[in-house]
Amino acid sequence: MNKPFWLLLGASVLAAPSFAAQYVFKNVQVFDGRQATLSAAKNVYVQDNLISKIEDYQAINVTDPNTIVIDGQGKTLMPGLIDAHTHLMLAALPQQTLMLADQGFINIVAAKTAADMLQRGYTSVRDLGGPIFGLKMAIDKQITTGPRIWPAGAFISQTGGHGDFRLPNELITADSKKHTISVRTGTSAIADSPDEVRQHVREQLALGASQIKLMAGGGVSSFYDPLDVTQYSLAEIRAATEAAENWGTYVTVHAYTPRSINQAIDGGVKSIEHGQLIDEKTAKRMAKEGIWWSLQPFTSERKSSFAEGSPQRLKQKMVEQGTDRAYRLAKKHQVKVAWGTDILFSAEKLKGQTQLLSIMTRWYTPAEVLKMATYDNAQLLMLSGERAPYQGKLGVIEAGALADLLIVNGNPLQDLTILEATDNLQLIMKDGLIYKNTL
């Protein structure tokens, strides 16, 4: 494993994580990402950035000066959490600020967003829209801290679609698709034919996208599109999926309604984001064809970022009303479900990120939820194939897996809410480096 960038410099930009050639976590009870119970006491060995061995707990005598033994005190060792739907560049600032503020300021806020997310136990995220490539590079080079990022880059939208944030007077301006602020910053790309879609997909792949995000239906936060509209033609969607498949990866789409979801599946899409307005026939189809459903627990308890009575708030309420039925259909038909948060425009909401994990117990057991946020989400990440930015097993505690792990004070298989309090996350390791240790 390469040494951290800051160790090579001899000084750190931020506080450096702890680094050793080998760690031994003794006396821990393991949630391995799949089983519904904790193991008996174990010793877990980490060599460089991989879990190298797991053995029954026993006294150990270590003389190697490059090995650090950490007493887990019988606490829970589990995989790092994975959020399958994030927008790190767009999460913490109000929508108007993102459209008007200096990009340097936005970048710095996003770096703090990423660092805070890691401290909440999220060691990997799938980022589904925004100018993320620079932040990802800074994290990977250990210039700043944050989770592993599977980046989509700019989301692809039709004119008037969910990713079109032009002002009304820009819509009639020649070439405004190229020059509006959201396009210039790399937040969105507006494309209106199979050829334009193909070009913009290829551009994001060239920049390092691990998957492509396409807007296939109406959305809440956008200005022009009602929630029920279907966006893009079948030919345009096929242009996107063919370009992605030629690059060895896949397309996921923003869609709520049966029509938009079915057209996307017809076009070769492998994952649906949201889908709260789905019908049972479409849910059955998703299960039969192995389509991933990246569904978020949007409920009325969440404080809205939109003014009461605004068009955005009215659309948001429609989505919230569909959430319960969507989860029940997903569970009934055993659709492959990913867990994510899709938090936008609110630093306050970000602090409650893990509350959106706890709320999942309305539909699933704590063990099912934790499996979803670790092992299952890791399987979704691997849909990127060779375009996955990090190769290796994630979401599990087993020999040979990447060493992304947490030590938790308490048993989250009995009470998920303990993960909401960061004080209960007593150790955070990502890629074999310790970013927090209060044991």
From TrEMBL:
<dbReference type="InterPro" id="IPR011059">
    <property type="entry name" value="Metal-dep_hydrolase_composite"/>
</dbReference>
<feature type="signal peptide">
    <location>
        <begin position="1"/>
        <end position="20"/>
    </location>
</feature>
<dbReference type="InterPro" id="IPR032466">
    <property type="entry name" value="Metal_Hydrolase"/>
</dbReference>
<dbReference type="InterPro" id="IPR006680">
    <property type="entry name" value="Amidohydro-rel"/>
</dbReference>
<protein>
    <submittedName>
        <fullName>Amidohydrolase family protein</fullName>
    </submittedName>
</protein>
<dbReference type="Pfam" id="PF01979">
    <property type="entry name" value="Amidohydro_1"/>
</dbReference>
<feature type="domain" description="Amidohydrolase-related">
    <location>
        <begin position="76"/>
        <end position="432"/>
    </location>
</feature>
<dbReference type="InterPro" id="IPR051781">
    <property type="entry name" value="Metallo-dep_Hydrolase"/>
</dbReference>
<keyword id="KW-0732">Signal</keyword>
<dbReference type="InterPro" id="IPR057744">
    <property type="entry name" value="OTAase-like"/>
</dbReference>
<dbReference type="GO" id="GO:0016810">
    <property type="term" value="F:hydrolase activity, acting on carbon-nitrogen (but not peptide) bonds"/>
</dbReference>
